[in-house]
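hey so u asked for the seq, here:
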Amino acid sequence: MSKKSGEEAEEPGFRFTDRRRMSSEGPHEPAQAPESPPEVTPDPSTTPDPESPAADQEKKEREFVLLPVQDLVRIFIAELQTRALVHMGLVPNPATRLVAKDLPQARLAIDSVAALIEQIGSVAPPAEREELQHMLANLRLTFVRQSGGAPGVS
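ran it, C-alpha cells below
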C-alpha cells in the first residue's frame, strides 16, 4: 500500500451506506430489495483431504444416514432401553448427571421397545430375537420392581 503525504494508508474494509429515507413517520426501507450475496464456490485448497479426520467424520455421517432401516431400529431399541433405565432411576441422566424417576416415561420407552422388537422380529436371526425378548422381559420386570408393583402401573 502506498502512503499519501504524511497520512497513513487506508485499511481496506467495508463501506456502509444507509439507504433508508427518513420522514415524519419514521424510517422507510428502500423500494428495492437488497442485493443477494454472491454465490461462493468452494476453494479447492480448503476442501478436506480424503485422508483427513474431517473427511473420515463426514464419510461416517453419510454412512449413518444411509444405514438400512433394520440397523436404525436396532439403534432406536438400544437408545430406548437406556432411556427406560434412566427414567426408572437406575442410571444417571447423561445430560444432568442426576438420578430421578419418571415412571410414565419409562413405561412409554419400554412399550416402544416392545413395538420395535415386534417389527424387527421377522427379519432378525433367531438368536437376536431371543436376546431382544430377554432384554424386554428384564426391562418389564425391573419396571415392576421400581414401581413397587402398584396396580395400574405395569
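The beta strands are 21-23, 26-28. The chain is about 45% helix and 5% strand.
lmk if thats what u needed
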